[in-house]
Automatic annotation (TrEMBL):
Protein name from the UniProt record: Alkaline-phosphatase-like protein
Family membership noted in the UniProt record: Belongs to the sulfatase family.
Gene Ontology molecular function, alphabetical: arylsulfatase activity; metal ion binding
InterPro entries: Alkaline_phosphatase_core_sf (IPR017850), Sulfatase (IPR050738), Sulfatase_N (IPR000917)
Record key words, sorted: Calcium, Hydrolase, Metal-binding, Signal
Keyword flag Signal: yes
Ribonucleoprotein is among the record's keywords: no
Residue ranges constituting the Sulfatase N-terminal domain according to the UniProt record: 8-329
Cofactor(s) needed for function: Ca(2+)
Amino acid sequence: MSTDSSRPNVVLILADNLGWGELGCYGGGSLRGATTPRIDKLATEGLLLHNFNVESDCVPTRSALMSGRHPIRTGCRQSVPAGFPQGLTEWERTLAECLKTNEYATAHHGKWHLGDIPGRYPSDRGFDEWFGIPRTTDETQFTSALGYTPEVAELPYVMKGKAGDASENMCVYDLETRRLIDEMLVDRSKEWLTRKVEEKKPFFLYHPLVHLHFPTLPHNKFKGTTGQGDFADSMAEMDYRVGQIIDHIDDLGIRENTVFIFASDNGPEFREPYRGTAGPWSGTYHTAMEGSLRVPFIIRWPGQVPEGKTSNEIVHVTDIFTTILSITGTDLPSDRPIDGLDQTAFFKDSTNTKSPRTGFPFYIKDELRAIKWKDWKLHFVWEPKVNQSTGRLESPYLFNTVRDPKEESDILAFNTWVLQPMMKLKSEFDRSLKYDPAPPDPLKEV
């Protein structure tokens, strides 16, 4: 562990498809069928963001988090099936690889989704060890699906690996294991944290949960506990699992010098019966609506981040890469464009300091769908619900997200001045892409 305040420990928990409106501290909780007392308490111990933004899909968000770069730069534009090129190329520098240069211990316990072949597993990309799933959770349905055989589609496995060694399969990732996986992940993280404290070395623990990704199935100990079905039961379990890690950090005596971040990778699930909610925002992941962009984010850093604060300042997932490196005194890669901005000063004084970020472009795959700037959102393609696109708009739609959170009233005709700063943001990003060209879409190359 680290007791040096300039080299704090970092624990990053990432929920899977947790919508903005699910947790109690975001207006959900009991209204969604399950209270979330542990995460709600965490929110009172640090800073809660109302305007933390991610990408449209699991792979793009995780690549942005690990590289500090928009997916249009890295080629990690979408989730793809096993056996197809996917994940971060060897040229990209991951958060874990950067921290290793600063002598941090690193571990990944959870869902990776950034490469499923030798050379691209977490233990090949800067993590000392890993345990979890290389891809995604809908694969747990394979073995019980009509017509499935391993000869036509790869069996999904829970895997583990250590740096310098080959990663190996542990067990088939089926529906039964789906119910057990988050318990397994927490047990691994607790054991690893205990070891790192004994070694007295600063560490980075990346713990991407599996909940609430569909099929959203709770552990048997939580099944039926809320009376509101599997989704609510899974929320209750997710809250409990986060609490287990919080308690273990406290028991180890490392709370004071540990940066603890809880966030989500995407907006809510939209498939019945596992439908989530984005609260006041419209849309789900796989769209450019605010319900896709905005997700929960809480940071606790005792003595550094004031308690009980909330903010509607814009923060983007790429900023987490840059900010963690800044907090730990680790050098940023200097040989490539980094899109993430350092939010350290803002996190430490959100009352008197503004986020350095005013906006960002939002792509789905290789298409610019929207630009977000301050309280404004400009859509170039209108797709309020998944697979319900009306195509590229002749005249873009403009919304003010404070006055019109559900993006219902296009007001571009009355606010064309907003096009100037937004188009400036676009042209600056386009210019940077010219000198850092995007890789080809891997699915188009197969």
